[in-house]
Design a protein that fits this description.
By secondary structure, the chain is mainly β. The chain has a domain at 31-76 and 93-128: Sandwich (Immunoglobulin-like). It is 4% helix and 34% strand. It has one helix at residues 13-18; strands at 35-40, 44-50, 59-64, 67-74, 94-101, 112-116, 119-125. The longest helix is centred in the N-terminal third of the chain and has 6 residues, at 13-18.
């Protein structure tokens, strides 16, 4: 019995260019995004956001109820020397932003943020509201 084999004409696409010292270009969709990890405990949310290569003065955080927005301005100096030509540039310049909603509202006044080694850590305390309690009728 013969086996059917699926033929993929592009399987060795990279090999085709190897002898020419060229590599096929893979384009990414849009500018990079801020990558997040969000953790929760009983009292607060903790967000770790990767924003490498940005000065802390260029990072902005806003909180509106349960909506959290983080934005940053990325600046890269273009340094070219006479006779040099850019072969490939993957560094992004411009603005990055990310917004997300949480299950609970955040106490904006108690929110704290630190930026170290390209990682922004934001502590977002949950807004505590008094729970409704039964009112005794006299």
């Amino acid at each position: 019995m013969n086996k059917m084999v699926h033929f993929d004409p592009f399987a060795d696409f990279d090999e085709m260019f190897r002898g020419m010292m060229l590599r096929p270009v893979r384009l990414e969709a849009g500018p990079p995004q801020i990558r997040l990890d969000v953790a929760e405990n009983d009292n607060a949310y903790t967000v770790h956001a990767e924003i490498p290569g940005v000065k802390k003065d260029d990072i902005h955080i806003s909180v509106d109820g349960n909506l959290v927005s983080i934005s940053a301005e990325v600046h890269h100096e273009k340094e070219t020397r006479k006779g040099d030509r850019v072969i490939r540039s993957e560094r992004h310049s411009g603005s990055l932003s990310r917004s997300f909603t949480l299950a609970h509202e955040v106490d904006q006044a108690a929110t704290q943020a630190r930026y170290n080694d390209g990682v922004l850590e934001v502590t977002l305390p949950k807004l505590t509201r008094s729970r409704p309690s039964p009112i005794a009728i006299k």
